[in-house]
Amino acid sequence: MGMGNPMQEAVQDIALGSLAGGVGKIIEYPFDTVKVRLQSQAAGQPLRYTGPLDCFKQSIATDGVYGGLYRGVSAPTVGAAIETSSLFLSVSHASPHFAPEFLLKHLQYHVAQEALMASIYGASTPLPLSALCLAGAASGAFTSLVLTPIELVKCRVQVYDRGLAANKLGVAAVINLVLKEQGVLGFWRGQLGTLIRETGGSAAWFGSYEGVSAFFRARVTKDSLSSSDPAIPVWQQLIAGATAGMSYNFAFYPADTIKSRMQTEVVPSGTAQQTFWSVGRTLWRDQGLRDGLVMSIDGRMILDRKRNLDPGRG
User: In percent, how much of the chain has pLDDT > 70?
Assistant: First the structure.
């Protein structure tokens, strides 16, 4: 960005970030809808969808493109626009080493790095990869507290056709029903699954990104005989981002499946809700590893390769 008026630059950052966040969410949302629907298939019954492509086809055939794939997209799109505009503004003025997908997780990651340098490694010592993974895990743990209620509402809207009355309504109606039936704590249904996914997944994300980036930077430094910390080309940033996104999903994907099942299950009145571990055991017993715990990883991998192939984040 040029050396223009700081206010104009800030406005431009917010505008471009909002556009990028909104467009990105619109592109990725159908993949996320398919992922959640595959994860939320009823246990103990024949699978409704045989895989991601079959889910795409049935969703469009039943409800059309918007109703089948984009139901409930408005709130996440606005949120992504605000989130990404804040990220663009932060990157423009703070110029961090790299900017992950979520501003909250990005800030927490750097706070954890500062804490490790202040308490264990020292400010003048570069953090080893193990410490960067630990910082990533800490950022994911905090972020999970924010993500769980957002994902609970999103997931229930996305699987509205499974017979749950609330899921036939919009975002506001789902929020009101959760408050009425379960209270505020009801929004954190599935928190353990989000915690495991975000803690382990973020450690894998940041560790993979930093590791691959360090590998490429070392090659650039060796070729140029420079002792500085060089910038890496766009194609190398793409590889680092894609590796990070895939690592995030492969690491603890079953925890995300269990979380989605818990957040969308239909619980008859007077019946106790299942725990994280009981849902996991049921999925393993009834559907096995592939159909029960990792069936929708195909769509999720496509979604996260798209998310992380972003040279603007390098």
Answer: 66
Residue ranges of alpha helices (H) inside 162-275 are 171-182, 191-224, 234-264
In 3D space, the residue among 105, 66, 81 whose CA is nearest the CA of residue 25 turns out to be 81
d(CA 160, CA 176): 15
Tokens 């999103």 belong to residue: 154
Residues 56, 238: Cα–Cα separation, whole Å: 27
What is the distance, to the nearest Å, from the Cα of residue 136 to the centroid of all Cα atoms in its chain?
14
Helix axes 129-158, 234-264, angle to 10 degrees: 50
Closest C-alpha among 112, 109, 111 to residue 100: 109
Report the SS3 class of residue 190: coil
First to last CA, the chain: 15
The model carries a pTM of: 0.71
What local confidence, expressed as pLDDT, does residue 177 receive? 87
Decide: residue 183, CB within 10 A, 0-12 exposed, 13-18 middle, 19+ buried.
Answer: exposed
- 56 in Cβ contact with 31 (< 8 Å): no
Look up tokens 């239909």; give the residue: 266
Rounded distance between C-alpha atoms, residue 75 and residue 64, angstroms: 20
